[in-house]
Design brief:
The complex is a heterodimer of chains A (142) and B (197).
Chain A (H helix, E strand, L loop, with lengths): L1 H20 L14 H13 L7 H24 L35 H27 L1
Helix pairs in contact in A: 1-2, 3-4
Chain B lengths: L19 H9 L5 H19 L2 H18 L14 H20 L7 H5 L8 H20 L2 H11 L5 H8 L3 H20 L2
Helix pairs in contact in B: 2-3, 2-4, 3-4, 4-8, 6-9, 7-9, 8-9
The chains are: A mainly alpha (142), B mainly alpha (197).
């Protein structure tokens, strides 16, 4: 089993490298090192298992939320001194009226905790607290 | 095992992480996290789609992963031969953990069949050949959907994310040998399904 798994691993390495380089490949059954049926299945999956990409709208909305969180993290570090003080900071640019969080940019959907808007704000808030804590731990470790 | 007094510990071998410069920049200034996000958002989202069979749930998971990665970046460290971790492996470890939480919350809800949820990709210009291949791929999907989670995950990381066995081992917290066996068994199951008439 282990030898067969090793040979298959080497076969997949070549198969995926060829796919990446768009090199033509010989028929799967021409490869003696692996079971021909497994080679055929591997070739099929290499062609058929595609990568999905999120919508442009989602990608940009999340990029905006990450930027807002990063800005807040940076402000927290600059303002402060020691993150160990544990004071809560205002959250610049993330008011409910912020265009970044408008329903125009973030479509409402019945998702986990209260939809994308609620989760965006709560995640960003939790992010700041977690980052401040992590930053403090990292500083203590230095 | 034991070193003599004064003897220096051997230096750890740390594999070069192609993302190291970007990670260091993002550590200095969190606003520089964006290039890492742009590079990996498709991979994380795709992994989530294959696992959750639902594009909206995959978006939600993707958001969780990148938020956690952004705030957790100060704690990320590349590790050497005693425990590989590159930024990509670390990111997918976060995804795997988020997925485990997500799945606990979804236990009550039926999941859409994988092939129906994702839609099948277009295959080749020749309609007859494409039809045959479509049929084969349909059956492959069915076999993949029946696989135990760890085998399916290993297969997706190998074929879709194009990770090496080494990277998959890091993501799944397993040895390379066991990852090879997982993939071999998964592929054999797909091959068995394709052989069935």
């Amino acid at each position: 089993m282990t030898d067969a798994a090793l040979r298959l691993d080497a076969y997949l390495e070549e198969l995926l490298a060829d796919r990446e380089a768009r090199r033509p490949r010989p028929a799967a059954h021409a490869t003696p090192a692996v079971d021909p049926r497994e080679a055929v299945a591997a070739d099929l999956l290499a062609r058929g298992l595609v990568r999905f990409h999120p919508s442009f709208r989602f990608e940009e909305a999340l990029a905006a939320r990450l930027r807002a969180t990063a800005d807040a993290m940076r402000l927290a570090a600059a303002a402060g001194g020691s993150p160990a003080e544990g004071t809560l900071l205002s959250f610049p640019g993330l008011s409910a009226a912020s265009p970044m969080l408008s329903r125009e940019r973030v479509p409402a959907r019945g998702l986990l905790v209260g939809g994308a808007i609620a989760s965006g704000v709560s995640l960003a808030g939790a992010a700041i607290l977690a980052w401040r804590r992590g930053h403090r731990l990292a500083s203590e470790g230095d | 095992m034991f070193r003599k007094a004064g003897e220096r510990a051997p230096e750890r071998l740390v594999p070069y992480d192609v993302d190291r410069p970007a990670v260091e920049a993002a550590r200095r200034d969190p606003r520089d996290f964006e290039p890492l996000y742009r590079k990996y958002v498709g991979q994380v989202y795709s992994f989530a789609v294959y696992e959750l069979h639902d594009h909206h749930a995959a978006e939600d998971l993707t958001e969780q992963v990148f938020m956690r990665a952004l705030v957790g970046l100060p704690r990320f460290e590349e590790r050497g031969t005693d425990g590989l971790s590159t930024f990509r492996v670390w990111l997918f470890q976060i995804a795997r953990n988020a997925l485990a939480n997500e799945r606990r919350g979804r236990m009550r809800h039926p999941q859409a069949p994988l092939e129906a949820a994702l839609g099948l990709p277009a295959l080749g210009p020749d309609p007859a050949a494409a039809s045959l291949e479509r049929d084969a791929l349909d059956r492959a999907w069915q076999a993949i959907a029946r696989l135990p989670g760890d085998r399916r995950r290993a297969l997706v990381l190998r074929f879709v994310e194009e990770m090496t066995t080494h990277e998959i081992a890091g993501v799944m917290g397993r040895s390379e040998g066991s990852v090879r066996v997982l993939i071999h068994r998964a592929l054999r199951a797909v091959a068995d399904e394709l052989r069935r008439d």
